Amino acid sequence: MPLPDLPWPLLQSVAALADAPLAQIAERLRDATLPFMGGSALVIFTEDCTGRPQKKAGDEEIISRASIAELDTLRAALSDEAPWFGEAEIAGRTRPVLALKHASSNALLVLTDPAPADSGHNSGLDLVTYLWRLTARRIREKVADAPPSYLLESRAASAERLRVTAELTDLHSTTLETLLAALRSSSLEDAAARSTVTDLTAKALIGLRTHSDRTTDLVKEPVAKAFERLREDLRPLTRYSGIEIEFIEPPLNGRALPGEVAHAARAIVRGLVLAMTEQPDVSRVRTQWDCDGENLLINVRDDGRGALAADAPSIARLDRRVQALTGQLRIDVMPGWGADVFVTLPLDLPTRPSGDVAGWDLAARELEVLQHLVAGHRNRTIASKLGISENTVKFHVRNLFKKLDVGSRTEAIALAHSHGLR
User: Fold this and answer.
1) Alpha-carbon gap, residue 327 to 296, rounded angstroms
2) Where do the TM regions start and end (predicted)?
């Protein structure tokens, strides 16, 4: 095909989708699909993104009110990946929709008030389906390779949604329980009306509790299920590399993992396994997960010569992911015996510094440096972990001494400890 005849707008849309950050991927998909399938709004529902399972663009009245419960109900009604035209409740009322499900990720695309550009709408629908499958795969890839900034944002969003859901559940539960108590009162007449309203209210209460549980499920993943997904991720490597990968499973009753921790843990283990298998004379890698109730404990070990470099760029990238979740990564290299990697990922958000610490008026970078001092890190290590020079670290340490009114690192660490900074 001559270059001028190539479908450049479509190719540019594909390129825009491939490069889109997760926060903008719904807008890019809407821009790409509008020439082929118009509509009032576009909503993506994906459980791969625990922090923001909905990604939306279009009519604000719709995207601000579309709920997880509505999308979950619609998705459950779809039997396969075939496009579905029909009516569904979205944003509080029944609307015409086009819905497509992505089989491997179980993600859902919904276009409200679809308006095909061609009368037969077959070619346009084929292009929308193609663009959706590309988008769903890109979402999975981007989440799997999520940078530290995404992990931090996801954890904050997950915590905020759980807090809001808990507040709403408490509020409405109290209201409904009060109604039930009143309606069950023997002083009220019209038993038939009382019975009917009691049944309706009980169903509403059950529905609210179910919605709360469903929201919690979206931001948490059972540790055994998370580990099984890791096994599936690594299955092709065990099949084609000739290297044996042993999986030591976590306890079935282990605490559920926050979604961002589960995603990060799988990505970290995949990265470690790939780094280990690239070494010479490695025939076996063992990975083990455990949970102590507060942390996910990961151990990955190989049987190579102990050539894994702790300062290699691939390990540094993994360490940044670990640090984004306030975790720790330690490598023990044993020449002639292999490498042993230990990763600890906290399951809960770190406690904020006390008001006294906030009163020190520390800049964000100064607080990071102080936290590294408390962890016992030297200037060179701090510089490496924060991606700055040693001279810059020294500059921040001097500022810390002035703001904390101390004369040494020991005094600074002791003062930080006394104010609850760990």
Assistant:
1) 9
2) none
Instruction: Report the distance separating Cα 22 and Cα 295, nearest Å.
Output: 27
18 compared with 214, residue with greater pLDDT: 18
Phi, psi of 70 (to 5 degrees): -65, -45
Mean pLDDT on 406-420: 77
**Phi, psi at residue 199, to the nearest 5°?**
-65, -45
Spatial CB neighbours of 392, under 8 Å, sequence gap ≥ 6: 383
Tell me how far CA of residue 22 lies from CA of 143, 306, 364, in angstroms: 8, 38, 25
Q: Are 266 and 229 a contacting pair, CB within 8 Å?
A: yes
d(CA 351, CA 91): 36
Name 278's Cβ contacts closer than 8 Å, sequence gap at least 6. none
pLDDT band, residue 111 (cuts 50/70/90): very high
Which residues, listed in sequence order, are joined to residue 390 by a DSSP beta bridge? none
| Gyration radius from the chain CA atoms | 26
> Which 3 state secondary structure label does DSSP give 343?
strand
Q: What is the rounded distance in angstroms from the CA atom of residue 315 to the CA atom of residue 378? A: 19
Averaged pLDDT, 175-192: 71
- pTM of the predicted model as reported, rounded to 2 decimal places: 0.57
